[in-house]
From TrEMBL:
Compositionally biased tracts (Basic and acidic residues): 350-363
Pfam families: HTH_animal
Name of the protein described by the UniProt record: Helix-turn-helix domain-containing protein
InterPro entries, A to Z: HTH_animal (IPR058912)
Positions of region (Disordered): 341-363
Helix-turn-helix domain sequence ranges: 231-289
Length: 419
């Protein structure tokens, strides 16, 4: 139960997206001391492992996981109902000892009783989930796993790649552009609150990866947003020495994972050195840390620990790609907990087969001669590019639209002044 002495009403604030034209904002609710926060965290803790396990074949964890999967490639009531369908389809009668009926009731509290304060007024959210609530992202992912089922099946039949990171989709296409446009127009009719923006091309950024399809050969490199500043923790800051060493190690390992060519790696290595020097890292410290890192994989000799040819680089990259990233390890550990202390259904109790898992065959890294495709969704989750939020207070019918002066957050609200 919430502690009445520390419980507080959630409040709304906005984070500007400086890399977007016009600098739109993302509305976020601070729910740290809200009454429903513990319920939200509890449900997320027991449901997220189920999603991480059952939908891992179509979920992009990070840029490194996208590169790994592509290497195998060749050529509100509704939300609650979908949550129940998802659990039942995967054979769950209970999750961590909690019946799915109880889970539905608890999730209903999170979605339907979200109240917060903003500008000396109280609002109740009537559509979607709060960005700032632990459960929102898991529910959005489960919702999208239902939405994408048909397109995943179609991509699998044709041997094409499909992967989703929250509300961004990356997929390949090997048919005509007319057929593609027809498919995208059709996708925009599947749900009234899900609309797709898309980019088609032979070279596109996705997350922090630049993917290029040149004559059917896929290459990858690190993508830097144009608005990104070359900033890391300054060397003159009061941090332990190992922090600076880890920054260099993480940066160079990131470059190795993402750079599919020796040329791309050398470009990124120069970028990293300039960034570090810009942040007051001594050149001798940078070189010593690079020698130390490379010597772990190539040679124990201090004179042979530089990457100076393609053969050394590809041997090193093969070793690095064989190791999971911290985020991949975290998701794998979460997925491993999916079936612990759960009560599965018998096979004959399931009403529908498991259609969420996609079987992938290992193939070469030669892709089709046609386009790469990125889809970005609106109004899907807490990370949507254009978020429309509807709020109301009890039975009041007064609506007012937020203006540009309220930081460009497009919202429909019903206002109620605080006493």
């Amino acid at each position: 139960m919430p502690d009445r002495t520390t419980c507080e009403l959630a409040h709304l604030y906005f984070n500007p997206k400086t890399h977007k034209d016009g600098i739109p904002v993302r509305p976020i609710e601070s729910t740290i001391h809200a009454a429903i926060t513990k319920i939200s965290k509890f449900l997320d803790k027991i449901l997220r492992p189920v999603f991480d396990d059952k939908c891992k074949d179509t979920t992009i964890i990070d840029g490194a996981s996208l590169i790994t999967e592509l290497s195998k490639y060749n050529k509100k009531e509704e939300t609650l109902d979908i949550l129940m369908t998802f659990l039942h389809a995967h054979g769950y009668r209970k999750v961590k000892g909690i019946s799915i009926d109880t889970i539905k009731k608890l999730a209903s509290i999170i979605l339907k009783d979200n109240v917060f304060a903003y500008g000396k007024k109280i609002y109740k959210q009537t559509a979607g989930g709060a960005m700032g609530s632990s459960l929102t992202l898991t529910l959005a992912n489960i919702f999208m796993s239902k939405w994408q089922k048909n397109i995943v099946e179609e991509q699998t039949k044709t041997g094409e790649f499909y992967g989703r990171y929250i509300d961004d989709i990356f997929m390949t296409w090997n048919r005509s552009e007319e057929e593609l446009i027809k498919l995208l127009d059709d996708l925009n009719t599947w749900h009234p609150n899900i609309k797709l923006d898309y980019k088609i091309g032979n070279s596109l950024p996705f997350l922090d990866v630049q993917l290029t399809n040149k004559n059917g050969i896929l290459s990858t490199s690190v993508y830097h947003k144009p608005s990104a500043e070359p900033y890391v923790t300054p060397f003159i800051s009061d941090h332990p020495r190992h922090v600076f060493s880890n920054i260099i190690k993480t940066s160079i390992e990131h470059a190795i994972r993402y750079s599919s060519t020796f040329e791309a790696f050398n470009y990124e290595r120069r970028y990293i050195k300039l960034m570090l020097i810009y942040n007051d890292y001594p050149s001798t410290f940078i070189e010593n840390e690079l020698h130390k890192y490379f010597s772990e994989y190539i040679s124990k000799s201090p004179f042979l620990s530089l990457i100076d040819d393609e053969q050394k680089y590809f041997l090193l990259r093969k070793q690095i790609l064989g190791q999971p990233t911290p985020r991949q390890t975290q998701v794998a550990m979460s997925a491993a907990l999916a079936d612990i202390d759960n009560d599965p259904l018998d096979d004959d109790e399931r009403q529908q087969p498991d259609t969420y898992k996609i079987k992938s065959e290992k193939k070469s890294q030669t892709v089709t001669k046609h386009s790469l495709l990125i889809l970005r969704m609106k109004n899907v989750s807490k990370h949507a590019n254009e978020i429309y939020i509807e709020y109301t207070i009890m039975h009041l019918k007064i609506h007012q639209q937020c203006t540009q002066n309220k930081l460009s957050a497009t919202a429909t609200v019903v206002q109620h002044k605080m006493n």
